[in-house]
Amino acid sequence: MTGKTRLYIGLLVVGLVLVGSGLWLLLNPIPQINVPESTPVIAMDITHTGGGAISQLLIYEEGTIIYREDTGLRPGQVRTRAWSKGKLHEGELADLLEFINDSGFEALNSDYEFPGIPVPTENFPEAREYGDLYCTISVDNQDLQKAVSAAFYMTPDGGMTYPDMPYPLNEIYRRLKDIAENQTEVEVYKESI
């Protein structure tokens, strides 16, 4: 086989790979996550440092839900970002906003910290370890523009609730977590970060 023949065969193989890849992308396009340009009426940002995850839930005025979760953020883990989307019906969003408005959310302080006793670790009995769950809930709807953050909360049940968080923050968190997990399509798109 001459050098020219090898070159032609190599170029043919590269061409077939490129055409095959192009056809695969044409038949299996990357889903579009269209994030509305408007400001969300409700947003929740969660950082779970022990689990190496950060998530963000955005709910827009027309009911669009965008949920993004970054995982694998600890050293040695594979970093990925999963996108999910969904839609709240007009009545569901109105009920949620009514609950937030009537619950006393506006009267909450802007920051809370875990009020419990720190937990000593096995290796460092003198050292104290606080919880690793951080959350900020923001509402931007008509007359209510407020953000409330909670830090150092424990995750006794996998982060599903903040049992020691003041009411109504714990209930709003629970409802928003439920929306993120049960009213969005699971992993519309996943990417490495």
Please give a structural write-up.
With 193 residues, this protein is of the alpha+beta class. The chain has 2 domains: 1-30; 42-192, Mago nashi protein, CATH 3.30.1560. Helices cover 27% and strands 34% of the residues. It has helices at residues 3-27, 90-103, 169-182, and strands spanning 42-48, 53-59, 64-71, 80-87, 111-113, 119-120, 128-129, 133-141, 144-153, 184-192. The strands form 2 sheets. Strands 5-9-8-1-2-3-4-10 form an 8-stranded mixed beta sheet, with helices on one face. The chain has a two-stranded antiparallel sheet with strand order 6-7. The longest helix is centred in the N-terminal third of the chain and has 25 residues, at 3-27. It is flat.
Helix and strand composition category: alpha+beta
What separation lies between the terminal Cα atoms?
44 Å
Q: Which stretches are low in confidence, meaning pLDDT under 50 for 5 or more residues running? A: none
CATH architecture of the largest domain: 2-Layer Sandwich
- Please estimate the helix content: 25-40%
Taking Cα atoms only, what radius of gyration do you get, to the nearest Å?
Answer: 23 Å
Number of strands: 10
